[in-house]
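Thread: "does anyone have the structure for this chain?"

Original post by V.I.:
We have the sequence but no experimental structure in hand. Need at least a predicted one for the grant figures.
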Amino acid sequence: MRRCLHVLILLTLLFSSTVLTASAHDDATPSASPAAGDSLLGELGYPEIVVTTDGTTNDFPTELEAGRYHVVLENQSDKDVDLEVAQLPEGMTLEEVDAAFDEAEAAAPPFVLPDFFFEMVWNGGLGAVAGETKGFVLDLTPGEWTVILRAYESESEEGTDLPVTVTVTGEMAEIEDPTGHVEIELVDMDFVVPDRLEAGPQVWHVTNNGLQVHHIVLSRIPEGTTEDQVIELVSSFFAPPATPGAAATPVIEPGLAIEDVEDVFYTPPLSREQVNLYELDLEPGTYAMVCYMPDPSGTAHVMLGMVEIVTVE
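Reply from O.Q.:
Generated one for you, tokens below.
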């Protein structure tokens, strides 16, 4: 399956991945990654799944008991790597899903996702640049899950998908969520975040309580930026090209420029009731939290108001 975050965002918004939606690891220079057990997520004590890849392998286990897991991605390759987790539509193979996405991409704009996209269960994931080790926490309920590892060149986005089918058995025990961490709630066309976020290392407990598929792209922006300015910047990329001979149409320059945006974090898609835990190390400043997932009509959620300005102190 194609790199879902890249395709769903880029084809929906129809502009370059250097604008707001760029993967946080595309431009950032990562700091040295701690050993898995030394991380804040490792301290939570969940069973670990270590996925080590050289860019040609995906050694995610093919059989697991239901439960909450700390997944550690060790990227030993010279390529960037994304890992995404999803349940395919009932009765569809991965090849059929790929073909349907290809057909939707080839159709005349606007790009509209296949109906089954909204029936899939998207369970998040993460990305790691070349040589980086990162982790996240997710719940694996009974059933079959597809774990897709994609290794790709950051400049060209050309890469290889390495899917693994994971059979999860047993019963899901009741899980007591950790306390004292940052609670981030995704609801339909809004984010519910704390009034105040502190700078420094922290764990984000991200839950989708909306009916639609959502995700987070977190970007640092200038102080004083408004939600309307973020939406205006995104909207400016939908403007049709000028038609020779047509009457001139005033162009409103957005108050926020592309160069003002620095991407720092993202999550792959999360379906309703799915939970991921992530470790972040935030600097003080102003950030835009945005969802670019499309609704069934193809309209990106940011265009429906799903953007939040967050201050980190």
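V.I.: this helps a lot. The CA atoms of residues 36 and 251 lie 50 Å apart.
O.Q.: and The first helix runs from residue 4 to 13.
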